[in-house]
Amino acid sequence: MRYVILRDDDTNALTPVRCLERLYRPFLDHGMAVNLSVIPRVRLDATSPDGSPEQFLFARGTPSGSSVPIGDNEELSSYLHGNPGFHIVQHGFDHSAFEFDSGDADDVRARLELGTDLLMDAGFPRPQTFVAPHDTFSRVSLAEAAKRFRVISTGWFELARLPLPWWPRYALKKIAGDQHWQIGRTVLLSHPGCLLSYHRPYQTMLREVRRAVENQALTVLVTHWWEYFCDGVPNEGFIQTLHELASWFAGQAGLKVISFDALPDGDVPLS
């Protein structure tokens, strides 16, 4: 059996329900888990690493404050509660650029704990998985996240950014060639880059995804809902490609699309 975790980043209080429904209805109808990395309190002036405004803010209109908690969007919260195929992952705190590339332990702890509180205040279960904005961690933030979450999902792990006690286990992972590993109770998952992205050609996208899935026991696929709706306009070709992927998943008898939460409780292989 092979396993896939579909991770969609950047859902926030400004995300239109219509976008998530359009993208993921085929997955939900097939009983597949969709893991949404939710920003607990999104900054309305959030910027990407190059300093440009984050594109997931296209629906903000004229902002009346500096940030908005996820619970303020009652329509979105109700929609997510009404569709249990969506699984909520904590995505940073307010999506400040590289907010978890920090050596300030007090600030890191505050962002982790306040973010969790905001998700729970919106009626979601305590999140068990953490994703840092831009997949960027410091040594301090990795250590603090591992104390609070059972799964950390990121693009890669760098020795210089790992807590020193993790180094021996990391060395064993590298020698074994494992993609995923574990420290104590915390599962550490890497992904093969954003294979589902508007930066990649649609003609070869499904082939690349299939290759990744077929070559690993467990694959984390990362995408971003807003890339399918640049400036709010549906990218029909990209959306069709995503839906074709759902159909392919549904036709694979030896493949299961699961939530992050299934990892600590099941016998899913990590290598």
Q: In summary, what is this structure?
A:
The protein has 271 residues and is α/β, with parallel strands linked by helices. 33% of the residues lie in helices and 19% in strands. The chain has a single domain (2-265), classed as Alpha-Beta Barrel (TIM Barrel).
Pick out its properties.
single chain; alpha/beta; TIM Barrel; 9-stranded mixed β-sheet; two-stranded antiparallel ribbon; 11 strands; about 20% strand
Secondary structure layout:
Blueprint: E1 2-11, H1 17-29, E2 34-38, E3 41-43, E4 67-69, H2 74-81, E5 86-91, H3 105-121, E6 129-131, H4 139-148, E7 151-153, H5 167-176, E8 181-183, E9 186-189, H6 202-214, E10 218-224, H7 236-250, E11 255-258, H8 262-265
Parallel strand pairs: 1-2, 1-10, 1-11, 2-5, 5-6, 6-7, 7-9
Antiparallel strand pairs: 3-4, 8-9
